Structure formats: C-alpha cells, structure tokens
C-alpha cells in the first residue's frame, strides 16, 4: 500500500459566532487542504498513470469540482448564524456557502472528508481510499480527519 498527498489552497471567509474572542468577527483565511489517498501503485505499461497510485492532477480535478470551486472566495456560514446569513443573502450575487455546522477548521475538514471520500473510492474499482484530510486554517493551526 502506498500513500500519496495532494495539497490545494483556497481563500474563504467565516466566523465562529459563539467564540469568546476575535474569531466571532467576520474574517478570512487562506486555507490549505491536504488530501491523502492510499492505494496500490498501478502497473500498466503504456497507460498515462503507470507507476502512480493516482495522477496528482486527477486528485486535484476531483477536489476542485466538489470542494475548492465551491469554497474558494466564498463566505462559509453556519445556517443557524441567521444575522450573517440574512446579511449575505442581501448582497447581490455574493458567493455564500451555508453549512449545517459552525465553520470551525474541524467541521470544515469533516465536511471535506465526507464530501470527497466517495468520489475517490469510486476510482479504480474501489481499490483507492481517502485516508486523511488535513486542513490548515492558518500556518500554525490545522486539523486531521482520519478514515
Ligand atoms: N480548535 C479550533 N480553534 C479555533 C478555531 C478552529 O477552527 N478550531 N478557529 C479559530 C479562528 O477562526 C482563527 O482561525 C484562528 O485564530 P488564531 O488562534 O489567532 O490562529 P493564528 O494562527 O492566526 O494565531 P497566531 O497567534 O497568529 O499564530 C480560533 N480557534
Ligand atoms: Zn478563522
């Protein structure tokens, strides 16, 4: 079994409404998402992905389609944070993602894991699995969600 990791970055706004300090304010981060997959190295001479667990560009395409393109330059807001939801909905064409939980790094990492895992599992007849999502909220703060 071999483990490979693809890193992607995106910018998003959020706030943690219950937070006792600064994080209750509207603010943003350049998030770093690391996607780690486990699988066997493909042995298929002549095939584009020969010698790879999965083509890094393919890992990126799946993550972009299902997470990055939605979250990049969006404001990620808890559905129960009605003051902010109402404000964002008053802005024409604003990119807002309403989620079922408070947008902490932990909850966002779990959401990314649960969203992406089935898409990677579908590759190569189910022989590939998402083994870890690591999400950096800042260079000093990150979360790991493990399979
Ligand atoms: N367990 C968690 N704690 C905190 C979260 C979180 O998602 N999970 N989020 C925040 C804030 O949103 C913020 O992103 C982190 O702020 P801070 O602790 O200030 O992190 P910095 O890296 O910017 O701190 P430095 O002191 O500049 O290193 C808070 N807590
Ligand atoms: Zn924050």
UniProtKB/TrEMBL annotation:
Cofactor or coenzyme needed: Zn(2+)
Pfam families attached to this UniProt entry: PTPS (PF01242)
Entry's EC annotation: 4.-.-.-
Domain of life of the native organism: Bacteria
Record text on cofactor binding: Binds 1 zinc ion per subunit.
Enzyme class: lyase
Binding-site positions, Zn(2+): 14, 27, 29
GO term, biological process aspect, one: tRNA queuosine(34) biosynthetic process
Catalytic activity, as annotated: 7,8-dihydroneopterin 3'-triphosphate + H2O = 6-carboxy-5,6,7,8-tetrahydropterin + triphosphate + acetaldehyde + 2 H(+)
GO molecular function, one term: 6-carboxytetrahydropterin synthase activity
Catalytic site: 23, 73, 137
Keyword annotations of the record: Lyase, Metal-binding, Queuosine biosynthesis, Zinc
Pathway noted in the entry: Purine metabolism; 7-cyano-7-deazaguanine biosynthesis
InterPro entries named among the record's database cross-references: 6-PTP_synth/QueD, 6-PTP_synth/QueD_sf
Signal peptide: none
NCBIfam families: queuosine_QueD (TIGR03367)
Family according to the record: Belongs to the PTPS family. QueD subfamily.
Protein name: 6-carboxy-5,6,7,8-tetrahydropterin synthase
Organism name: Pollutimonas bauzanensis
């Amino acid at each position: 079994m071999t483990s490979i990791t693809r890193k992607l970055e995106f910018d998003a706004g959020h706030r943690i409404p219950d937070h006792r300090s600064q994080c209750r304010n509207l603010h943003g981060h350049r998030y770093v998402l690391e996607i780690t997959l486990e699988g066997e190295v493909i042995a298929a001479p002549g095939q584009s992905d020969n010698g790879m667990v999965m083509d890094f560009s393919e890992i990126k395409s799946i993550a972009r389609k299902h997470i990055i393109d939605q979250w990049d330059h969006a404001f990620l807001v808890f559905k129960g944070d009605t003051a902010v939801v109402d404000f964002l909905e008053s802005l024409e064409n604003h990119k807002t993602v309403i989620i079922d939980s408070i947008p902490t790094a932990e909850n966002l990492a779990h959401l990314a894991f649960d969203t992406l895992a089935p898409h990677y599992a579908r590759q190569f007849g189910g022989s590939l699995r998402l083994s870890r999502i690591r999400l950096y909220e800042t260079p000093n703060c990150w979360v790991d969600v493990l399979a």
